[in-house]
Specification:
Blueprint: E1 11-14, E2 24-32, E3 39-43, E4 48-55, E5 57-62, E6 65-70, E7 74-77, E8 83-87, E9 94-101, H1 105-110, E10 120-121, H2 127-137, H3 148-167, H4 172-190, H5 199-205, H6 209-220, H7 224-242, H8 247-253, H9 259-270, H10 274-284
Antiparallel strand pairs: 1-2, 2-9, 3-8, 4-7, 4-9, 5-6, 5-8, 7-10
């Protein structure tokens, strides 16, 4: 939650255009989807948009790919790209977004690790980024054509925090923990997608896949494949206990496109079939 903004308040601030030819801020918005409805319709925008997720979860679809994103993540769309994004029903997200235009927007966003192929970054909305958002939004005048230069300054400052994180040469131990934390976040936010693969994580974090696998195993004692499987099975156990969905429906919701494979993995991990697990949990209540 951003300070000085009422939780149920959703608003947009508009700014003068062409303040800077290379990078200008057209709009800045704050949305909390506990209080407004999301939109699943595929659509396009005429300008760049960049979203900073403060809390909750949601789905972002672009270029034939689907991303499960949550607190701390960033996603962006270029002009005239077909996309959709919408909040999770049980844990809807809250975010701040910027509408951008100018000749150098693409180059500027590339400094923050975003380009036409990489539309998301995980875990980069740090306390420093939130402080900058907070400082800007708490002083923003919710009226037309105010504070355009301040908006550009705030946005580039936020990008500098994201870029600085990559440019700093921290100790190897801290670097390893950061990579592993991001890999975990990526798995936790995407495991429900049956198309999600461990190989995608290295691409999203700009790391060699084999190197990242080695770091993850050394730091956690388990492989990334095992961690992905654990997330899916734990989610399935929770849904079997707390919902009336069929086992087949739950397998799909937890990222298993192959129902027999799900049953086999569940039995191997828990010693129960999904149905017997559900029955056993009911008897314990």
């Amino acid at each position: 939650m951003i300070a000085n903004i009422v939780e149920s308040e959703n608003y947009v601030v508009y700014f003068d255009k062409r303040i800077l030819s290379g990078l200008s801020v057209d709009t800045v918005g704050y949305n909390n989807f506990k209080f407004i409805a999301g939109c699943k319709v595929m659509r396009k925008e005429e300008h760049f948009t960049m979203h900073f997720i403060l809390s909750g979860k949601g789905t972002f679809n672009i270029g034939g790919k689907s991303f499960r994103l949550g607190k701390g993540d960033v996603f962006y769309c270029a002009p005239n790209e077909l996309f959709s994004y919408y909040p999770d029903e049980s844990d809807p997200w809250e975010y701040v977004w910027f509408g951008l235009y100018g000749d150098n927007v693409s180059e500027t966003l590339r400094l923050a690790g975003l380009d036409s192929e990489i539309h998301v970054r995980y875990g980069v909305v740090t306390d420093a980024v939130i402080n900058r958002l907070d400082g800007f939004l708490s002083g923003a005048d919710k009226s037309v054509n105010r504070g355009s230069l301040a908006a550009v300054s705030a946005f580039t400052g936020i990008l500098s925090e994201i870029a600085i994180e990559d440019e700093q040469p921290p100790k190897q131990e801290n670097m390893t923990r950061r990579y592993v934390k991001r890999a975990k976040n990526c798995i936790e936010n995407n495991f429900t997608d049956s198309e999600f693969r461990i190989e995608h994580i290295g691409q999203l974090l700009f790391l060699n896949h084999t190197y990242l696998c080695r770091l993850f195993l050394r730091e956690t004692g388990v492989t990334m494949v095992a961690y992905l499987r654990e997330c899916r099975i734990n989610a399935a156990k929770n849904m079997l206990t707390s919902t009336d969905k069929t086992v087949r429906e739950i397998s799909l919701d937890c990222g298993f496109s192959d129902y027999p494979h799900f049953c086999k993995i569940f039995l191997s991990e828990t010693g129960f079939t999904p149905s017997s697990w559900r029955e056993n949990q009911k008897n314990l209540l």
